[in-house]
Amino acid sequence: xxxxxxxxxxxxxxxxxxxxxxxxxxxxxxxxxxxxxxxxxxxxxxxxxxxxxxxxxxxxxxxxxxxxxxxxxxxxxxxxxxxxxxxxxxxxxxxxxxxxxxxxxxxxxxxxxxxxxxxxxxxxxxxxxxxxxxxxxxxxxxxxxxxxxxxxxxxxxxxxxxxxxxxxxxxxxxxxxxxxxxxxxxxxxxxxxxxxxx
Length: 198
Ligand code: ADP
Ligand code: 5GP
Hints:
Blueprint: E1 7-10, H1 17-27, E2 32-34, E3 37-39, E4 53-55, H2 58-66, E5 70-76, E6 79-84, H3 85-92, E7 97-101, H4 104-110, E8 118-123, H5 127-137, H6 142-158, E9 167-170, H7 174-197
Helix pairs in contact: 5-6
The chain binds adenosine-5'-diphosphate and guanosine-5'-monophosphate (5GP).
């Protein structure tokens, strides 16, 4: 029997993907599993290797990509990011809903695969709010902040393409955004819970 459908979460850096995802993983422990991506960027304070990302050098990552170990990979804001086949298999082998957090290039690549996920876009209420949130997060250098804002402008433009996403959530008030995310996934959540009981 096919396992539950994966979920792809995307949206500009700073839109609130990690914040919403953390809540979802906490509330539904044993239902969702996070696909741990690889990246060449440095860990932020509090991030853990193997939990938030697999932190690797560009050489190691490129070699793994060349070996065909990745479903997709992309260059974002001066660093490489990618989803390994092993990361997704690790979650799916436990019959959990696999959640991927990827940028727009990742979405386009995944659309060409057999993964068949639910595509959810998390959008900020405005560019001004996005910039404020990114600044207040205090994780980016001046240069990185500008690169992310530029990528966000492109992302928000492409996101208008009709049919690209199954669900679009504007993350204005966190509680409302979380309720929408939760609501969009309740059917899949129920399927996992039913399968557990069967
Ligand atoms: P992403 O994972 O999309 O890059 P984050 O989850 O890190 O974004 O959120 C960016 C910043 O905005 C974080 O500091 C987070 O605490 C804050 N944030 C997220 N959602 C909201 C919200 N609805 N209202 C206010 N601040 C928020
Ligand atoms: P951050 O550095 O803020 O953690 O992530 C930057 C961007 O990279 C975000 O838009 C995030 O969704 C994206 N990202 C994280 N992991 C992957 C991945 O495996 N593949 C792709 N294509 N993008 C990713």
